[in-house]
Amino acid sequence: MIIGIWTKQTGVMFFPILFIYVLLFEEYDLITDFKKDTKFKIIKIFKKVFPAGIIAVMLFLFNQYYLTPKSTDSTNFLVTKFEYISTQFYVIIHYLGNFILPINLSADPDIAIIKPWYDIRILFGFLIIIGLLFIMFKTALIKKTRPIAFGIAWFFIALLPTTLNPLFQIANDHRMFFPFVGLFIAVPWGILVILEKYNLLQKSKNSLKIATLFIIIISAYSFGTVQRNKVWNSSDSLWLDVVVKSPKNGRGLMNYGLTHMAKGNYEVALEYFNRALEYTPNYYTLYINLAILNDGMNNHTKAVEHFKAALSLNSLSPAPEFYYARYLIDRQKFSEAEIYLKKAIQKSPNHTKSKELLNLISGNLKTAEEEIEELTDLIKKNPSPDLYLDLSFTYYKNKKFKMSIAACEELLKLDPNNADAYNNMCAAYNQLKEWKRGAEACEKAIKINPDFQLAKNNLKWAKDNINN
Fold it and tell me: Model confidence over 314-333: pLDDT tens digits?
């Protein structure tokens, strides 16, 4: 149990499973004669499961509050709890189907939230669950069939953590591993009970037929296992399988694109990333990968745009700040990189990579005055939009907002359609609380680049304050 909880925290469900085991097989009198010595029986069960319960709960809490980084948040706030749980009625049918006939396994199935709650898939799943619970209660009353009740209880208890807590992935086939242990107890025992009830094992002819059937079934599952291992042989074949089975799965498309990016097939990778963007427009990891890919293709304007989109989309993970800082360091922009690395560490104090990178650049950091002087000298020699943009940002981060705006105005003389310049002006005007001028600048940025997420965020910031 301890190893299980440290491997996957759903292992804490061993405790309620142990309780059901003790209730069904060791202290069954509580069910058969509930009114007699009830308090004594409950205390007896409590004594048996209490040690495991204390260890399980304390270890879970220790993991959750002391070992899990503060930036980790697996709860999906984009859906309501009711929508998520009602969809799980259908997801459970999906899992049961894979138990019976696992011919459509996927490393990342793209099951989405089902609306409304009275959708036929949800209602059918609800009926299946009610049916299984009915079988569980009926079989719990007979000694011979208690393993069926125990297996069904195991299945539902092991599923509870991923069923009640809204996760970003609505379904994932690896969640079946723990619950399926229960079905592997209940189903074979149920088959054995049926075979014995109808005396199907008494005749040698029937025994031979049943044995042949089981050999065929086991052989089919074995063949399926070999085929599935071929899919899992490499990340390339694994994510291709996901893309084929779930062509609208943004995460699957992105991960398959990553396999091509690793091979240097940048154009193919970009195609899959853009397809992923259609289905997951608010996926910050995708924007980070798009930024890294565009950097590799020497499209630095797009790279920065995607990094900033990732920064605007996520407030919990240190990843957007870390990767953008790494990009800035490659361009010798150490002071700017320092800001983002400190933000990453603020989000996740134990983010080792950010600490190491910050330590690495500590000797290269310049004062604000040195950085501004250096950029000014470079502009005098060779004025360019990129240098003016860097100067504008340097002024901005040092709270010299009017100078930041002035740098952008000079930039626009060289490049009148520079969306980044208008966005920087918007952010600076917002800091000066000149909300209307900020909104006007951001509207120009969005007119030039309709997909400029950072400018949209700054425009919202300005408009919210105008309305207030």
Answer: 667 889 999 999 999 988 88
